[in-house]
Design brief:
23% of the residues are buried. 73% of the residues lie in helices and 0% in strands. It is built from 14 helices and no strands. Helix 5 runs parallel beside helix 9. By secondary structure, it is mostly helical.
Length: 300
């Protein structure tokens, strides 16, 4: 009887954890299982249709040790970091603006939900149709007399700095972060409205001293999700980036699909490198967050 009571007490005490048990099991079975399986394939522990397996388990990773791959990793990480930071800053500004105007402009929230349902491949295709030098905007500008020729329209597709790739990603990821943090901003502003009036504080002071310190972990977490996704996605760079950009997901897709089964471990090894970078950045952010909590959650 005592044991049954103790078990019941533990269940009641940790019933919140039981709510996330299905998601946790899903992560353990599919995510970790897929990661371990991919790692084993990148180490050459699988036989591909009777092909001879390399004796050196690390041969796929050794193939990646060259300047070309390191430059591609740098370019891919740079792109993901720029997209995550710009999307996070833009989303925070837009979410604050929407929260302040939530009563007057409720219809604006619907506009931010529209890009969420559009696949990245379709968004890249639409961006190409709109922003190329022979696209819709270039034709409109030419017919209105704003440019003398189509070549005078700014190059946003296959450009040197991948501005088109960044803009295409931001069009998708800014609404994601807005929808992630917007409800919490509205709740915080509503809860602290009376205290702000009593203390004579302004909206900007409430945002600086209340909203941002409380929202910071979720906001940074949202940017990390965008960083990790952009790091491993290939659709938009494949359509909008220059070939010389050398996006790792695009190179991995080419290795996996075009160069034979014996090259597939190299493609998987490329993806495992990106997964390791994403995990490393996530662990670094958790470490900085723990230090931030110990210092009293001070931002300014």
């Amino acid at each position: 009887m005592w044991r049954i009571t103790k078990i019941s007490h533990q269940i009641i005490k940790h019933k919140g954890l039981l709510g996330i048990l299905p998601a946790l099991l899903f992560m353990l079975i599919f995510f970790l299982g897929g990661t371990v399986h991919s790692l084993s394939m990148s180490l050459g522990s699988q036989e591909y249709l009777g092909l001879v397996v390399q004796e050196d388990r690390l041969w796929a990773y050794k193939e990646l040790i060259n300047n070309s791959f390191f430059q591609s990793v740098g370019a891919t990480v740079w792109l993901a970091a720029v997209v995550a930071i710009l999307s996070g800053i833009s989303a925070l500004i837009l979410a604050l603006f929407l929260a302040k105007r939530s009563q007057q402009w409720k219809w604006v929230n619907i506009l931010f939900q529209l890009p969420i349902g559009i696949p990245h491949l379709l968004s890249a295709y639409l961006f190409m149709q709109v922003f190329t030098q022979s696209g819709w905007y270039a034709r409109i500008a030419f017919h209105l007399g704003w440019i003398d020729s189509f070549e005078a329209f700014p190059i946003l597709v296959h450009d040197e700095w991948s501005l088109g790739v960044i803009l295409a990603y931001m069009w998708k990821e800014v609404p994601f972060i807005v929808l992630l943090i917007y409800p919490f901003i509205v709740k915080l502003l509503s809860d602290w409205r009376e205290q702000t009036k009593v203390l004579g504080g302004t909206f900007s002071q409430t945002v600086r001293w209340v909203v941002i310190p409380i929202l910071l972990p979720m906001w940074v977490g949202g940017m990390w999700v965008v960083f990790a996704f952009t790091l491993g996605a290939y659709e938009i760079p494949a359509l909008l980036a220059r070939t010389s950009f050398g996006s790792i997901p695009v190179r991995a897709f080419q290795e996996y699909s075009q160069f034979g089964l014996e090259r597939q471990p190299i493609a998987i090894a490329m993806n495992m490198v990106l997964a390791g970078i994403s995990l490393l950045v996530g662990c670094l952010l958790i470490y900085l967050q723990l230090r931030w909590y110990k210092k009293g959650r001070r931002v300014w």
